[in-house]
Amino acid sequence: MKLGKSDTAVADMPPAPTPLTVESLLLQQAETSDVISDLATAAPISIASLTSSDVSLEAVTTGNVGSVEFVVDGKAKIEHVTPFTYPGDTDGNLQAFTSVVGEHTVVATPYSLLDAKGEQGAPLSRTFTFVN
Q: What Cα–Cα distance (Å) separates residue 85 from each residue in 3, 58, 59, 124?
């Protein structure tokens, strides 16, 4: 125990662990890793304005995250290494999925361990739209 300012005893408490969170979801050009959009904004994304239709998603996380499960339009993929990206990366080079006109939904859920195991953090869900 240690004494506080008012000379009352306070228990030494370890700091609370940082919660596992996905702070944001970023849409990126797969070839360059340039950010196209933070998916918190709901503005439609013009495929014609992109340098390539090959794009990637990145989950920006906080806490001691061991893996992130992405579910994009119902298709699940688990990423184990930072940056946590969909559909993944090889030695930091982003893999791509092809942007398709229409509305799309992504849910990213952080976990404390590999393979989407251990403590689960709160999922972050975003809907975005590609237009011509």
A: 47, 4, 6, 14
Task: Return the exposure string of 56-80: e unless at least 16 CB atoms fall within 10 Å of the residue's CB, then b.
Answer: bbbbbbebebbbbbbbbeeeebbbe
* pTM for this prediction: 0.86
Average pLDDT value for residue range 63-84: 96
More confident residue, 13 or 103: 103
What is d(CA 95, CA 89) in angstroms, rounded to the nearest whole number? 5
Domain ranges of the chain: 17-131
Q: Quick one: which H or E segment has residue 110? A: strand 102-113
Q: Which two tokens stand for residue 29?
A: 């050009």
- In the chain, the amino acid numbered 59 is A
112 has pLDDT over 90:
yes
Count of positions (residues) in the chain: 132
- Strands 21-29 vs 9-10: parallel, antiparallel or unpaired: unpaired
CATH homologous superfamily, domain 17-131: Immunoglobulins (2.60.40.10)
Cα 30 to Cα 102: distance, rounded to the nearest angstrom:
19
